[in-house]
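Practice problem: predict the structure.
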Amino acid sequence: MSMNMRIGFIGVGGIAQDHIRVLKQIENTEIVSVFDLNKEQAQKAAEATGAEVMESANQVLDKQRIDLVFICTPQFARGDLEVTAARRGIPFFVEKPVGIDMEVVRKKEQIIRETGIVHAVGYVLRYMDTVQTAKRYLQGRPAHLIQGFRLGTSHPSKWWRQLDMSGGHLVDTVTHQVDMIRYLAGEFREVRAQFGRVSFDQTDPESTIYDAGAISFSMNSGTIGSLTESCVSPFYSGSDIKFFGHDFFVHLSGNGSNLTIIDNEQHIVETNKLDPGYEQCRTLIEAIRSGSQASILCSYTDALRTLEVTLAANQSAI
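Answer:
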């Protein structure tokens, strides 16, 4: 591996731009290759980074040219990019969710795991110091009830409003809240959901995703909980997860940015001080240089389990 971490990008849309912003702040990193089906977008990214525009995703995945690849294509358009990178010995970062078909994702996960390649999945909220504080506090403290919500507006792309391409708001976006619940409280045992289309039936009848959802669940610990979500909430947006115990209360709001912990001995209020995107990229680069996956907070295997919960919720409503 070269002294400089040479990085390729497949997909340079909105979320990729945030990764590029962060990587520019990390020493000894260089973006050398970019590809996007939108050639104008690819050219802009190349001009901003000094990278070369490649003719295909496969051309980016050249082990002689790059030390790391960021795969930021939509979940329906990813093909076998992660597997190709892993088999070629190229460490990779892939955005969440890791897919929309569990059978496909399980096959990929097995191959990726067997290659032993260092990699990460973009569940960036795990890297907030508030989330890490909550994780330490909740260790050995099972909640009896978890309540969560995420409300906001829709992704601008047309593909996002098709269930067979995005998986819907829950699979694509509220996946962060599902993942945070898993990360802090353990594995889900059962999930049930109801979804509605009251607004989309009027405003966007060609879409196939839901505009609101109500999910109930139980966990292996015995904890029960609920999660509500909507992508048609223009006048109020936010996210919130509350953990209720017989002798504690933990509250993460603002997508994890704000933390409150209350028990018989303390009342703690904290605000996240880290740039989680920076921490996510820095951790991955250091892991690649050390050759160890240990410091990565979300692997493909872990991300698969989060996807499993959200797709099971979708399936339960059919």
